[in-house]
Specification:
The longest helix is centred in the last third of the chain and has 7 residues. The protein has one domain: Neuraminidase. By secondary structure, it is mainly beta. It is 4% helix and 48% strand.
Length: 299
Amino acid sequence: MPKRELSVLASGYTYLEGLRWHDGRLWASDFYTGQVIAVDLQGRVEVICRVLQQPSGLGWLPDGRLLISSMKDRKLLRREPDGTLTQHADLSALTGGPINDLVVDDQGRAYVGNFGFDLMAGEPVATTTLVRVDTDGVAQVVADGLCFPNGSFITPDGKTLIVNETFGNRISEFDILANGALGPRRDWANFGALPESDDLSVLIGASAIGPDGGALDAEGALWVADAIGKRIVRLARGGKILEQIDTGELGIFAAALGGPDGKTLFMAAAPDFIEANRRAKPEGRILVTEVDVPHAGRP
């Protein structure tokens, strides 16, 4: 495997998620300061907005307005052209925990994941839903039985949705039907059966990988942040590891491909995701390296 040189683009954040390359900059959410930021390739940072209930997933409607997952109150927010935030959809009745990552298709339909349980409070693990929010804010469940649906991707032809299940030891995929509904779930990659347990430590201990955020490339491979393995891996469909980048004591929790040629790999790194730790010592940073195959699909 090639040796990739890593550099730091931005640092001093609590815990970064939702990385997106958009309009020549990398966008990200910093959980515990409630900031959505954008940073250019020279490291210049702009604070785009603040989300009091913790921002996560980011995506854009066809008209350019930004959608933001507001995690704790489980609302999808919309940033208007004048910078104000308004409610796009309330997902509290359709989700089992804080909402997290999302992907928006070319028609403006947002597919939004959620935890399924209160991770920070130590609740038992529970499977949960994936919710679609249409451009008019109408929301409905389009998949169920997922274990922490997180990073999501749409293939370049717009026909397939891929979803990382962070505590499910698998990556799932669905056909996207013409009306935005999803077909039956199937494995994009499966890393082995897990014990029947709702104890998170048991599931993590039995998992080969904890797929968090990531990026789809033009060869159909996925760069996947391994939330439990302090690494990012490039996976072929079926789960074969094509490349691995180890990051020492830092976990990788999100990633994006971008830059002028789509070959810059951005990674959100932090020692852990625990709120008390990250607030006390904001060590979150964005790492970058150059890879060989450019971005494809959405986000």
